[in-house]
Specification:
566 residues; 2 domains; disordered N terminus; mainly alpha; five-stranded mixed beta sheet
């Protein structure tokens, strides 16, 4: 009793109310009807009712597990409050940040209506028109990135079903990811380096390109940066760890719901805690316990989000990519070469700048390592884990899988640049480094127009061929091009095949035979005999329409019997 004879307020009633809410959720999970729920989801494409019913069972079990976990976490002791290390900002910095974000938005909105590429077309045709409940329960391809498909679906319906509407979420989260990087960077580095990092990314060819790509990579970056910052706050023992654990769990689950590889970021964070925890120190162990709790929440919430489609997801991800076909894009060597090519295409100076930049990034990472090992590991260990996991599973090693870490790499490059300038320059080294970074931003801005080029030009190829063909000509679209024209319904009089026999049949029945294809590396791997058949002198290249997607050029060939090359 207090001196006034009244008991002080207790937090127990609040916890009891929370427990009751979690118990109600558990009861609802038990009572959730499986068959009726599966019918409501109305999954489409290859999903069977048995698949969805299995998913509903996973949903019920994950809700029960989440309820139990939430009640247990509410009883964990909180660590002692620690001072938050956050760089103060001057009054001009919020204004400058606002200007940078407005410039970034303008760069990403310009020419947003350029032609879509293969993956975007699949999203536009197959997923964006679906009902919300179908998007929750349908997974027929790894091209379906559930959270982005849901957001694109909202945008698609709100903006009248235009092609460019599915790119709007990528633009929004491209700009938002710059703000997220600022929020993260001002806690671990100087305000100057944080602002420069945002500015350089804002005018980066690669960041603009991905911000105009109707895929979930800018969304994944936004969530990953915020999740990494939240994880470090938990690891440092910041106040209100339960709230932070839930925030981290939600952010990482949404990132994994955007792209499955984001789960490997959480694996990198788990390894970070194992490597940096001082197990003999009680506070360090308690912080590690809260980090583990946050990771457990992220796993449970990820399973919960994927639950209605989880059996379909397992079927898709466990199925070998192009089984029985020898492909180059699952090897580390191809990944390294392709990464250099992609980076070289989007920075001033090309490969020379990229190779020099790798040295600078290394110096920056060493500087961050001396400053804080947990911060360095949380930023970069997920990149290593992702690379190793993809190599081990022989999954496609697309450089875009590492886009989530682009902001961290820019911060490391800036830190490395400042460190090297301080070593080499005696007269006002910080001002020299600042001028150099601003110069890099200006040169980077000059590469942005390349990001506005069409990603692929399927419609332009169709218009060109239709303008050139004669009445007795045959047109054959191969492999990926076949699927695109079939999905869009653009070429009702064209033949669609990847069969050498059908191509030869078209040659016999036509005056001239036109071939339209893209991604030659894939076509060569799938049908080497057909690819060889298309070589000169039998076929002549009429036109190659450029693309900003690597290997995405549209090849237009023509076979003319009148030339005598049969």
């Amino acid at each position: 009793m207090s001196a006034a004879g009244v008991s002080p307020p207790s937090s127990a009633p609040g916890w009891r109310r929370a427990d009751i809410l979690w118990l109600l959720l558990a009861i609802l999970a038990v009572l959730l009807p499986v068959a009726a729920s599966a019918r409501w989801f109305n999954a489409t494409y290859d999903a069977t009712i048995a698949d969805v019913e299995s998913g509903v069972w996973v949903l019920k079990l994950s809700l029960l597990a989440l309820s139990l976990t939430a009640m247990l976490l509410a009883r964990l002791p909180a660590p002692g409050v620690r001072t938050v290390n956050e760089t103060s900002t001057g009054a001009s910095f919020p204004v400058l940040l606002g200007v940078i974000l407005l410039v970034a938005l303008a760069l990403r909105v310009y020419r947003l209506d350029s032609e879509l590429w293969l993956d975007e077309i699949q999203l536009l045709v197959r997923y964006a028109p679906l009902e919300f409940r179908q998007l929750l329960s349908t997974y027929d391809s790894q091209n379906h990135q559930p959270l982005y498909s849901i957001l694109a679906g909202f945008s698609f319906h709100a903006l009248g079903g235009t092609d460019w509407s599915v790119r709007v979420p990528a633009v929004a989260f491209g700009v938002a990811s710059l703000w997220a990087l600022w929020s993260f960077a001002r806690r671990i580095t100087s305000t100057t380096e944080a602002m420069l990092g945002v500015a350089i990314l804002a005018v980066s060819y690669h960041h603009v390109w991905f911000s105009q790509n109707a895929r979930g990579y800018t969304l994944m970056m936004f969530l990953a940066v915020l999740a990494t910052g939240t994880f470090l706050r938990i690891a440092e023992g910041e106040d209100r760890p339960l709230r932070l654990a839930w925030v981290y769990g939600a952010l990482m689950a949404l990132a994994a719901y955007t792209h499955l590889t984001a789960a490997l970021i959480a694996v990198g964070h788990a390894l970070t805690i194992l490597l940096v925890t001082r197990w003999k120190d009680r506070d360090s162990r308690l912080n590690a316990t809260w980090c583990a709790s946050a990771l457990a929440l992220s796993a449970l919430l990820t399973i919960l989000l994927y639950a209605p489609m989880l059996p379909q997801v397992w079927h898709e991800v466990s199925r070998p990519t192009m089984e029985g076909v020898e492909v180059v894009w699952t090897g580390a060597g191809w990944m390294f070469r392709e990464g250099l090519r992609v980076l070289g295409a989007g920075v001033p100076g090309g490969l020379v700048t990229v190779i020099s930049g790798l040295v600078v990034v290394g110096v920056g990472m060493a500087s961050y390592w001396r400053q804080s090992r947990p911060t360095t590991l949380a930023m970069f260990l997920p990149v290593v884990v992702t690379f190793v996991a993809l190599i081990a599973t022989r999954h496609n090693l697309w450089p875009r899988f590492f886009f989530f870490a682009s902001g961290f790499l820019v911060l490391a490059a800036l830190r490395g640049g400042f460190v090297l300038v301080r070593w080499l320059v005696r007269w006002r080294p910080d001002q020299v480094a600042l001028a150099g970074a601003c110069g890099i931003a200006v040169l980077s801005l000059l590469t942005v127009p390349r990001a506005w080029l069409p990603k692929q030009q399927f419609r332009a190829a169709y218009d060109f061929v239709e303008g050139q063909r004669l009445p007795d000509d045959e047109v054959v679209a191969l492999d990926v091009a076949y699927h695109v024209y079939l999905m869009r319904g653009w070429a009702p009089t064209w033949r669609f095949t990847s069969s050498l026999t059908m191509v030869q049949e078209a040659e016999r029945s036509a005056g001239r035979t036109w071939i339209v294809y893209t991604l030659p590396t894939r076509l060569r791997a799938l049908t080497p005999e057909l690819f060889q058949h298309l070589s000169p002198p039998r076929y002549q290249v009429v036109r190659i329409l450029p693309a900003s997607v690597g290997g995405g050029e549209i090849h237009i060939l023509r076979h003319d019997p009148a030339t005598g090359h049969d």
